[in-house]
Amino acid sequence: MKVLFAGNKGRGLSCLITVKEKHEVVGVIGHKKTSKTNHFVDKANKMELEVFQPEDVNDERFIKKIQVLAPDVIILAGYGPIVKRDFISVAKYGCINLHGGKLPQYRGSSPMNWALINGEKFFSITIIQVTSGIDTGNILIEKKFQIIEVFCLDYFALKS
């Protein structure tokens, strides 16, 4: 299967590596270029994949550029920009998002952080079909995990 992959940070990189083991990755989309180092983009370049860092992922010129790749599916993992209908429709089978939270409760960014802040005992990883709404597509797969609490001793408490 031909995959166009859009991601960011460690989770995105882990997912990209796993996808690349079993599928043809025809291109990688990272966040737009900034003065900061982008490890996800650096690693994708080292994997000799075609890497894009568009200012606007929904720009008509960028859409035309990725249409040439003819992906079967687009996979998002930790990718921040909101994608619109034209982007989603580039791939034969559409676009899926590897969302790091239970839906619909934890729509939007930083779902794992919010689960911790809210004192949840479990969190979920959810794979959804991407629609033009934010994390509103059909849930394809959801896996639930127990949150393991880790207690850190305060350095100053040890001294007293």
Report what the structure shows.
By secondary structure, the chain is an alpha/beta fold. 29% of the residues lie in helices and 25% in strands. It has helices spanning 9-22, 39-46, 60-67, 85-88, 111-117, 155-159, and strands spanning 2-7, 24-29, 51-52, 73-77, 95-99, 122-129, 139-146. Strands 3-2-1-4-5-6-7 form a seven-stranded mixed sheet. Helix 1 (9-22) packs parallel to helix 2. The longest helix is centred in the N-terminal third of the chain and has 14 residues, at 9-22. It starts with a strand and ends with a helix.
Question: What value does the average pLDDT take?
Answer: 88
Given helix and strand content, the structural type is alpha/beta
Main sheet: which strands, in order across? Answer: 3-2-1-4-5-6-7
Which descriptor suits the 3D outline?
Answer: globular
Total DSSP E strands: 7
The portion of residues assigned to helices is 25-40%
Work out the helix count: 6
List the helices and strands in order.
EHEHEHEHEHEEH
SS strand fraction:
25-35%
Output the radius of gyration.
Answer: 18 Å
Enumerate the spans where pLDDT stays under 50 for 5 or more consecutive residues.
Answer: 149-160
Gap between N and C termini, in Å? 60 Å
Major sheet description: 7 strands, mixed
